[in-house]
Design goal:
Layout lengths: L5 E2 L2 H9 L7 H5 L16 E2 H12 L5 H6 L8 H8 L4 H10 L1 H4 L4 E7 L2 E7 L8 H20 L7 E3 L19 E2 L6 E5 L12 H34 L7 H7 L4 H10 L4 H17 L6 H7 L5 H12 L3 H5 L1
Parallel strand pairs: 5-6
Antiparallel strand pairs: 1-2, 3-4, 4-7, 5-7
Helix pairs in contact: 5-6, 5-9, 10-11, 13-14
Length: 330
C-alpha cells in the first residue's frame, strides 16, 4: 500500500547513530531509500514512510533487536511539539490523553489506545497496515519508546505490571527486560503493556500551565496543517493509483486536481516530494505485490504498470529495490 504520511529523519538518523562505529555501512543502510547522506544535515527534510521503512528493513538485516534499541533512544523530546506539550501537562493521565489526541504528530504506525481494566491501565498498539515483515520491529520500537516517554514524563521509571505481545518469543527476548521489566507474555491476544491505573493521577514534575497552553495551541495548528496537507497528498496518490496503467502527466494530473502545473509542483515540493517520486513509489509497491503472484509474468506486470517495454520496467525495479524483479520474485 502507499504510505501517505510524511515524517522526519529522526528514526533514520538514530539508525545511522547505532551503526556509527561502522561508517562503511552507511551506503548499505540508505540503499534504495533515495535518501542521501547529505540530506541528514538538513533539519527540515521530510521523507515518506516508504523511505523510512526501507532504511529500517536494511538495518534489520544487520541487527535483529533493532526495534528495541531504537525504542530505548526515542525520548519524549524526539516527538517535537506534542512531546513538549505532554511534558508540561498537569498529570500523567493528561499527558497520555493529549498524545492519543494527536496520533499524526506522534508519527506512529499503530492505532494507540489507553484502556482501564480493573486496577491496571493498558497501553495498546493495534491496526498495523504497513510492511508486514516489519510489523514486529515497528511494534517493539513503538512500545519501547512509549515506555521511555512515560519515564521522561514522570521523571522516574514507570513501574510496569505486565507486557503482552502477539508474536512468538524472539531469540533475543533476554533484552526485553531493558524496556519491559515485568512479566512478559508472548503469543498473546494483543500488543500492550500495563501499569497501575492510579499513576494516571500522578502530577508531572515539569507541569506548567502557561507553557502547556502555548504548546497545546501550537499542536492544534500543526495538526490542522499536517492533516490538510496529507489529505491533499492522499488525493494525488489516489488519482495515480487509479490510473497506474496509463499514468497522467503532470499537466493532466494538475487539471484533475483543479490547479495549475506550477501550483501542483510547488505543493509537492513543499512536502518534500515530486511527481515522479510519487509515481515510482506507487509502481514499486504494486510491482512487489504482483511479483508475489506466480500467474503474473514480468512482461505483463510491466505493461500493467504503464511501461512500454519490459526492459524499462526491469531497469526501474533494479533502481527501486537494488535487485532485478526475477531475483526479487525468487
Amino acid at each position: 500500500m502507499l504510505h501517505a504520511h510524511l515524517t522526519t529523519l529522526h528514526v533514520v538518523s538514530q539508525i545511522l547513530e547505532i551503526f556509527a562505529e561502522q561508517p562503511e555501512l552507511t551506503e548499505q543502510l540508505l540503499a534504495s531509500s533515495a535518501i542521501a547522506a547529505s540530506d541528514l544535515a538538513c533539519a527540515d527534510t521530510r521523507i515518506t514512510r516508504t523511505q523510512e521503512l526501507q532504511v529500517c528493513a536494511n538495518a534489520l538485516h544487520l541487527r535483529s533487536d533493532l526495534g528495541l534499541e531504537l525504542g530505548r533512544r526515542m525520548h519524549v523530546s524526539a516527538y517535537g511539539m506534542v512531546g513538549y506539550a505532554a511534558l508540561s501537562s498537569a498529570t500523567f493521565g493528561d499527558a497520555w490523553r493529549l498524545m492519543l489526541q494527536y496520533p499524526a504528530l506522534l508519527g506512529t504506525y499503530f492505532k494507540l489506545d489507553l484502556c482501564i481494566e480493573g486496577e491496571l491501565a493498558w497501553v495498546c498498539a493495534s491496526d498495523y497496515q504497513h510492511s508486514p515483515e516489519l510489523e514486529m520491529f515497528n511494534l517493539e520500537m513503538c512500545l519501547a519508546s512509549l515506555k521511555l516517554i512515560s519515564d521522561d514524563l514522570l521523571g522516574q521509571p514507570l513501574q510496569l505490571s505486565a507486557a503482552q505481545f502477539c508474536y512468538s518469543e524472539p531469540h533475543y527476548s533476554d533484552r526485553y527486560p531493558h524496556s519491559f521489566a515485568c512479566p512478559l507474555q508472548f503469543n498473546a491476544a494483543r500488543n500492550a503493556f500495563a501499569f497501575p491505573a492510579h499513576l494516571l493521577q500522578q502530577p508531572l514534575p515539569l507541569a506548567d500551565a502557561v507553557t502547556h497552553r502555548e504548546m497545546l495551541s501550537r499542536c492544534r495548528k500543526q495538526n490542522t496543517e499536517f492533516t490538510t496537507r496529507q489529505a491533499w497528498l492522499g488525493r494525488i496518490r489516489q488519482l495515480l493509483a487509479e490510473q497506474v496503467t496509463a499514468p497522467p502527466g503532470l499537466e493532466q494530473l494538475s487539471q484533475q486536481m483543479h490547479c495549475s502545473p506550477r501550483t501542483l509542483r510547488r505543493h509537492l515540493q513543499a512536502q518534500g516530494t515530486h511527481y515522479q517520486e510519487l509515481l515510482d513509489e506507487l509502481r514499486f509497491e504494486r510491482a512487489k505485490t504482483l511479483l508475489s503472484e506466480e500467474d503474473w509474468p514480468i512482461c505483463r506486470i510491466a505493461e500493467h504498470l504503464g511501461f512500454s517495454e519490459t526492459a524499462s520496467f526491469r531497469h526501474a525495479f533494479q533502481r527501486w529495490s537494488g535487485v532485478p524483479p526475477s531475483r526479487f520474485r525468487a
